[in-house]
Amino acid sequence: MAVIEKVPSVVFKTRVRDESVPGPNPFRWQDLTTDDIFKGKKVVVFSLPGAFTPTCSSNHLPRYEALYEEFKALGVDSIVCVSVNDAFVMFQWGKQVGADKVFLLPDGNGEFSRKMGMLVEKDNLGFGARSWRYSMLVNDGTIEKMFVEPGLEDNCPTDPFECSDADTMLAYLKGTAPAGVSAPSREFVG
């Protein structure tokens, strides 16, 4: 697997609240580019297979949400959760989970995940194409560190959740990560 040094150039289709929009659904479409999200910023990204799925909803997203202030104290500008879901699903999932600090970024057509080399088939679960579970530290568009779960493959019979968690990324930022993951690197771990 090739090591990617920069986040890929993608346009994300998002929905934003806009009180000037009439009716009971005051939202409008807004395109966000990779530069809008990453340029000049230190960003922690974690990607997961799907909104409303068990591990993603019970642990992965909630733990990043819970540790948000600790990440900010270490100079992180934002935490972004990427999933191959549309903007409507991501919005409703965020409401249900109570996520208001982590930015939920819809990768509706999987373009970002594909360009990252992380798009996998999950036909065995009836999901279709989804993102593999990983996290990364991005500084001004450059990927400084990636934690990729083991077993990256189409239709993997398991859903590993060992190294893309919030605590591993926080330990890395603090310089207290376990042996083997503490040195700055763009290489995959997992």
From TrEMBL:
Its EC number(s): 1.11.1.27
UniProt function note: Thiol-specific peroxidase that catalyzes the reduction of hydrogen peroxide and organic hydroperoxides to water and alcohols, respectively. Plays a role in cell protection against oxidative stress by detoxifying peroxides.
InterPro entries, per the entry: PRX5-like, Redoxin, Thioredoxin-like_sf, Thioredoxin_domain
Protein name, entry field: Glutathione-dependent peroxiredoxin
The organism of origin for this protein: Aphanothece cf. minutissima CCALA 015
Reactions catalysed: a hydroperoxide + 2 glutathione = an alcohol + glutathione disulfide + H2O
Entry keywords, A to Z: Antioxidant, Oxidoreductase, Peroxidase, Redox-active center
The organism's place on the tree of life at top rank: Bacteria
Domain Thioredoxin: 1-178
Similarity annotation: Belongs to the peroxiredoxin family. Prx5 subfamily.
Alphabetical list of CDD domains matching this protein: PRX5_like
Pfam families xrefs: Redoxin
EC category name: oxidoreductase
